[in-house]
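Per your request, structure below.
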């Protein structure tokens, strides 16, 4: 489980596309402390470390991961929200970090401090009931509270610190971001079966 608290903003240093996408990500983490096989959440996607060098680590992404996330759209230089699993950061907000789908950025509006911006995102069409006001979602690996839900859109508030420490400050309208919903909601939907529409 991850916390949804971003501990570094890395960047794609090298990228090779083949049967597997191989990515090398530059980071401020102490890479000497990262063991091979460790799990690192990369913009909300849990990936396994297959290589480590000073100031960088390497991961691979399968075709299934590329189909369900935005990793296939990354390029050299793309910012990546990072959270490690081998450190000691703890939080009461745990997320499992298998990003299940993507959401599209809508608009951002300035509001009084301490809230810097209120962002609107468009949820996937097949997720009609999994996002609720005051519930939790993870956007590109960042745990956020849902403020409101209106039709196909939902809104979150983002404080200046989060904007500065994540890739949110660089997001533009229409850009896709990785989305994860509450794990319990997914299990409830599974148990309800046909009575719950839009099960991911």
């Amino acid at each position: 489980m991850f916390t949804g608290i971003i501990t570094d903003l890395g960047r794609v240093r090298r990228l090779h596309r083949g049967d597997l996408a191989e990515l090398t990500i530059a980071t401020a983490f102490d890479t000497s402390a990262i063991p091979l096989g460790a799990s690192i959440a990369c913009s909300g996607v849990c990936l396994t470390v297959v290589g480590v060098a000073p100031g960088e680590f390497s991961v691979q992404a399968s075709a299934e991961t590329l189909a369900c996330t935005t990793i296939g759209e990354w390029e050299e230089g793309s910012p990546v929200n990072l959270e490690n699993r081998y450190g000691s950061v703890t939080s009461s907000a745990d997320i499992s970090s298998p990003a299940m789908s993507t959401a599209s950025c809508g608009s951002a509006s300035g509001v009084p401090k301490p809230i810097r911006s209120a962002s609107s995102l468009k949820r996937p069409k097949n997720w009609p009931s999994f996002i609720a006001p005051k519930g939790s979602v993870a956007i590109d690996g960042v745990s956020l509270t849902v403020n409101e839900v209106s039709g196909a859109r939902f809104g979150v508030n983002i404080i200046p610190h989060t904007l500065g420490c994540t890739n949110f400050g660089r997001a533009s309208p229409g850009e896709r971001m990785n989305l994860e919903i509450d794990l319990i909601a997914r299990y409830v939907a599974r148990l309800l079966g046909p009575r719950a529409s839009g099960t991911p």
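The helical segments are 63-68, 160-165, 183-192.

Regards,
D.
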